[in-house]
Amino acid sequence: MARLPSPSRPFTLGFLIVVVTTRVPEPGGGASVRQARRTDLVSIDRIEQASFPQPWPYSAFESYLGEPGFLVADGPTDGEVVGYVVADTIPNNGTPLGHVKDIAVADGHRRRGIGTTLLDRSLTVLSETGAPTVKLEVRASNERAISLYEGFGFEHRRTVPGYYGNDDDAFVMVAPLD
Q1: Are 140 and 132 in contact (CB under 8 A)?
Q2: pLDDT per residue as tens digits for the range 76-88
Q3: Distance between CA atoms of 106 and 51, rounded to whole angstroms?
Q4: Distance between CA 109 and CA 3 in Å, rounded?
Q5: Label partner for 73 (CA 20 to 30 A): which of 48, 105, 120, 150?
Q6: What is the rounded CA–CA span in Å between residue 28 and residue 47?
Q7: Of 104, 81, 103, 102, which Cα lies nearest the Cα of 34?
Q8: Total number of domains in the chain
Q9: What is the side-by-side strand order in the sheet with 70-74?
Q10: Which CATH number characterizes residue 100's domain?
């Protein structure tokens, strides 16, 4: 039988238990995704201007308001817009073709799964339109984006030289919508 220390005698515990916890990020960084509203346009424009060397004009985003594939991600704590995606369908020989036109996440919120969540939701919207396939263009040097798209089944179909100006080529990538 183990002998318990008496209150009058000091004792030392021969081991120490340390519990370390790590917060596992929620998919999508805890952001919620919803359809874009007019009140989001200033935030969307700020993200666009900070993300791309040749950003879309504000009016381009205005033209997509009300489209099912114009989605934003709200931050997990303050509801601030932290990312967006613009996706729609275009005619393709009588069958709609999905097209992811623009996607970006605010710099301080990247690498948290928000882009993945936005892309996933936009592909769901495009699939619901009956489009069997989706395409997008991506800067050939944007390895992180290409890796994200490949994870969704996108494959490089062709290269468009100088698509982004100043000798920046685009990869046209295509994926089936299941």
Answers
A1: no
A2: 777 899 999 999 9
A3: 8
A4: 56
A5: 150
A6: 17
A7: 81
A8: 1
A9: 32-35, 70-74, 81-92, 95-105, 133-139, 170-176, 155-160
A10: 3.40.630.30
Within a domain: residue 62? yes
Q: Domain span at residue 116? A: 31-176
| Adjacent-strand bridge partners of 10 | none
Whether pTM > 0.85 for this model: the answer is no
Which tens digits make up the pLDDT trace of 144-169?
A: 999 999 999 999 999 999 998 878 89
Report yes or no on 72 lying in a domain. Answer: yes
Please report which helix (H) or strand (E) contains residue 59, including its range: helix 58-64
Six-digit token string for 166 = 């100043």
Please enumerate in sequence order all residues whose Cβ is within 8 A of that of 174, keeping only pairs 6 or more positions apart, or say none.
133, 134, 135, 154, 155, 157
Closest CA relative to residue 30, chosen from 107, 102, 104, 117? 117
Distance of CA 81 to the CA centre of its chain: 12
CB-based burial of residue 38 (10 Å sphere; 0-12 exposed, 13-18 middle, 19+ buried)? exposed
Residue 83 lies in a domain: yes
84 domain-assigned: yes
The pLDDT score that the predictor gives to residue 17 is 41
Under DSSP, the state recorded for 140 is: T
Identify which of 150, 139, 88, 66 has the alpha carbon closest to the alpha carbon of residue 116.
150
CB-based contact 118:101 (threshold 8 Å) = no
